[in-house]
């Protein structure tokens, strides 16, 4: 980064600089006249030392990564001729942590912080342009934060949903069931679960193939999801093991819900457009409610035991 001239000796004029747009005061031109114009070769970093300066690109372009120390490259911006970088660091009197690299051979005007402040005192136009620029940057930063939050939420949702069926997955259950159990204990409200295991699913796979098995799982998941209230949750917590989580639901009502699920599963279409006799699926259902003083582990164990009884009793049925 070598000084090649001063602003006065360069071919550039004050009107080329966005920050000084409409500042046709000759005093501004005089103040900028001795400022250094430096050349930065393509690929070279703008070495700022520990001093924040204002840089204005006169020719070429710079790439600016917000914070060289955070390794965050998501907010990289390109600074074009007439645009400035470093004004915020100058105003904050902070070290400029932005990593500035020349994308092509550049000429930059360098304005020392003391002069920036003198010019702000002298020129209302500059102060107004600076405020406008900072307001634009704050808006851009906020928009980027919102985008990142949305993206984070999207990936979080993705990690809590099962890819095949779209139901909540085991990770969701591990995170949410303890919370739902705690809320139920605090409110004194009932919490029930229905564990569902598809019957002879190995045989179904062996007979109809794994792809048909996947379709059957999706059909079963759809039946469960569409049969629940909006406040209930449908979960796939294992291979062919599904669950309905029913807040504010006592055991007797959960048993009725399970009966309805069993009936709908029995008549569900696995392949609506298949001409061959339809393979059908049934499930075994184990129902349990959170006991007074019990926790989510005891609840799962009780539902598991009920499910075992439903299997033992001949499958395609509900056990409590
Ligand atoms: N197609 C398909 N099959 C799966 C998936 N996850 C688990 N399975 C199958 O589900 C079957 C479960 O078999 P088992 O646990 O022996 O139980 P079952 O054959 O259903 O017998 P019962 O539960 O006793 O009625 C296995 O053959 C698994 O391969 C899946 O995502 N897709």
Query: Would you identify the regions where 5 or more consecutive residues have pLDDT less than 50?
Result: none
Q: Mind summarizing the main beta sheet?
A: 5 strands, antiparallel
Strand order of the largest sheet: 1-2-8-3-6
- Percent of residues in beta strands? 15-25%
Q: What does it look like?
A:
- It comes from Massilia agri.
- Its EC number is 2.7.7.65.
- Pfam families: cNMP_binding, GGDEF.
- Keywords: Nucleotidyltransferase, Transferase.
- InterPro entries: cNMP-bd_dom, cNMP-bd_dom_sf, Diguanylate_Cyclase, GGDEF_dom, Nucleotide_cyclase, Rev_trsase/Diguanyl_cyclase, RmlC-like_jellyroll.
- This protein is of the alpha+beta class and 320 residues long.
- It has two domains: 146 residues, Jelly Rolls; 150 residues, Reverse transcriptase/Diguanylate cyclase domain (Alpha-Beta Plaits), CATH 3.30.70.270.
- The protein has nine helices and 13 strands.
- It has a five-stranded antiparallel β-sheet. A five-stranded mixed β-sheet has the order 10-11-9-12-13, with helices on both faces. The protein has a three-stranded antiparallel β-sheet with strand order 5-4-7, with no helix packed on it.
- β12, α9 and β13 form a beta-alpha-beta unit.
- The longest helix has 37 residues.
- The chain is elongated.
- It starts with a strand and ends with a strand.
- The model has no long low-confidence stretch (mean pLDDT 90).
- The structure holds guanosine-5'-triphosphate (GTP).
């Amino acid at each position: 980064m070598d000084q090649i001239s001063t602003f006065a000796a360069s071919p550039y004029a004050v009107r080329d600089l966005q920050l000084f747009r409409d500042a046709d005061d000759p005093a501004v031109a005089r103040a900028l006249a001795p400022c250094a114009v430096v050349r930065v070769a393509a690929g070279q970093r703008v070495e700022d030392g520990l001093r924040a300066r204002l840089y204005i690109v006169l020719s070429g372009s710079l790439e600016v990564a917000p914070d060289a120390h955070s390794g965050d490259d998501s907010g990289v911006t390109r600074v074009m001729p007439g645009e400035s970088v470093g004004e915020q660091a100058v105003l904050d009197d902070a070290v400029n942590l932005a990593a500035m690299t020349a994308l092509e051979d550049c000429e930059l005007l360098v304005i020392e912080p003391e002069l920036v402040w003198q010019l702000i005192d002298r020129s209302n136009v500059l102060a107004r342009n600076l405020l406008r620029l900072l307001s634009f940057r704050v808006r851009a930063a906020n928009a980027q934060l919102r985008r990142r939050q949305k993206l984070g939420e999207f990936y979080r949702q993705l990690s809590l949903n099962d890819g095949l069926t779209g139901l909540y997955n085991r990770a969701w259950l591990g995170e949410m069931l303890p919370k739902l159990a705690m809320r139920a204990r605090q409110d004194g409200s009932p919490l029930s679960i229905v564990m569902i295991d598809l019957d002879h699913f190995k045989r179904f796979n062996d007979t109809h193939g794994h792809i048909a098995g996947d379709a059957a799982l999706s059909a079963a998941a759809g039946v469960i999801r569409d049969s629940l209230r909006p406040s209930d949750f449908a979960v796939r917590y294992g291979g062919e093991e599904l669950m309905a989580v029913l807040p504010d639901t006592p055991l007797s009502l959960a048993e009725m819900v399970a009966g309805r699920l069993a009936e709908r599963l029995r008549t569900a279409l696995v392949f609506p457009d298949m001409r061959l006799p339809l393979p059908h699926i049934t499930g075994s259902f184990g129902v349990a409610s959170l006991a007074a003083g019990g926790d989510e582990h005891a609840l799962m164990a009780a539902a598991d035991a009920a499910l075992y009884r439903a299997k033992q009793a001949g499958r395609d049925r509900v056990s409590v």
